[in-house]
Design goal:
By secondary structure, the protein is α/β, with parallel strands linked by helices. Helices cover 39% and strands 19% of the residues. A ten-stranded mixed sheet has the order 3-4-5-6-9-10-11-12-13-14, with helices on both faces. The C terminus is likely disordered. The structure holds S-adenosyl-L-homocysteine. The site of S-adenosyl-L-homocysteine (SAH) has 17 residues, from strand 10 and strand 12.
């Protein structure tokens, strides 16, 4: 089994270079080829001897992904990619333009195990974790394709980042490295459905990134019904961890709250949410749910969203309504992979007939 060399942190690559009895400056050279150029084969590393390139390819491979489909929003220029991985699996990424620069939303797993009832990411099943190199490749190929520099990363694509903890941490270390993409930790957001043990692990690392919690409910009854993870880590446990996270890292924790008609969008729900979060240093993003055909959830009306927001504000809770980007290109993650899979299945079944 070869190792994904792009998944190694700079320190790990340094050790590998030492083990091969190579001078240490080689580590920096190879690292830059992998993370800054980026190369997809050792043969492109022209300042390494043929011999060394051969040696590297005996023990390592370079993970990558290729663009299978690309959709550009006519409304706001948001770009959505469907990437194909070496084993034929698909993942999605979205590039959005903001006043301060470009943000990419990346996937961390092929599929998801978490089973949230409104989300498309679990529909086509969980397949595997992405390597750190595969997570980074999404940024590299999007940058190259659009000829831009991406300055912000949100881990809100397919998958649960904290369920792929070690690879996500290596990915963060690489994108943050000055010989790599050199993206500041402050410009990186990790979104989680609330795997509390891993939130504590993350806290211990004291990284300056933003942690966002997919809360989506004001109480355990609704949350357990829509988000199975809540049965293992109920809201009190989760909110306690968030409070500690804020205190230990001095970073404000954000909450995502997707509004689903008749499920979590009543004014009582808003008041209950406000009561729970009162006094904590946080920010709530309200998001009208995106329709996912199989899920049958209905978006709350604009009027309801505004009233919900006002209840939070009148309780002195910091809250905003998330601006929708890429509304015409299925920009919420998981939908393309699912449709692609379904299309493949239909094609296969017609061939079999
Ligand atoms: N697993 C991580 C990150 C992936 S999802 C997490 O749960 O946070 C990114 C965000 O999109 C999450 O807040 C998720 O709950 C939300 N989301 C999923 N399906 C959605 C839908 N149909 N409409 C709106 N938001 C959705």
């Amino acid at each position: 089994m070869k190792t994904d060399i792009k998944a190694l942190t700079f320190e790990q690559l340094n050790n590998a270079v030492k083990e091969m009895s190579l001078p240490s400056f080689r580590a920096k050279q190879i690292y830059k080829w992998l993370h800054q150029t980026p190369c997809s084969s050792f043969d492109e590393m022209t300042n390494l001897s043929k011999d060394l390139r051969g040696k590297l390819s005996e023990g390592f491979f370079i993970s990558s992904c290729c663009i299978e489909d690309k959709y550009v929003s006519k409304i706001d220029g948001t770009v959505k990619y469907l990437f194909r991985l070496y084993d034929g699996e698909y993942i999605e990424s979205v590039v959005m333009k903001y006043k301060y620069g470009y943000t990419i939303c990346v996937s961390s797993q092929v599929g998801c195990k978490m089973g949230c009832t409104f989300c498309a990411s679990t529909l086509a099943g969980f397949k595997r974790n992405l390597t750190a190199g595969e997570i980074e490749s999404q940024i590299q190929w999007a940058q190259k394709d659009l000829d831009i520099r991406i300055s912000h990363i949100v881990m809100m694509g397919i998958g649960e980042p904290l369920d792929n903890f070690d690879n996500v941490i290596s990915f963060l270390s690489n994108v943050n490295n000055e010989n790599g993409l050199n993206i500041s930790m402050r410009n990186i957001t990790i979104s989680t459905c609330g795997i509390v043990d891993r939130i504590y692990d993350l806290m211990d690392m004291d990284l300056q990134l933003t942690l966002t919690i997919s809360l989506h409910a004001p109480n355990d009854e609704i949350r357990s019904r829509t988000m199975p993870v809540n049965k293992k880590y109920p809201m009190d446990t989760l909110l306690k961890a968030c409070k500690e996270y804020g205190e230990r890292t001095s970073r404000r924790v954000s909450f995502e709250y997707t509004l689903i008609k008749g499920v979590n969008d009543s004014m009582e729900n808003a008041q209950e949410l406000a009561d729970r979060l009162k006094g904590s240093l946080c920010h709530i993003n309200l998001i009208p749910v995106n329709d996912v055909e199989e899920r049958g959830n209905v978006r709350s009306s604009k009027d309801t969203v505004l009233k919900f927001l006002n209840v939070l504000k009148s309780n002195s809770i910091n809250a905003t309504i998330r601006r929708t980007l890429g509304a015409d290109i299925n920009a919420s993650c998981g939908q393309l992979r699912h449709l692609k899979k379904r299309g493949d299945a239909d094609e296969n079944s017609s061939k079999n007939r």
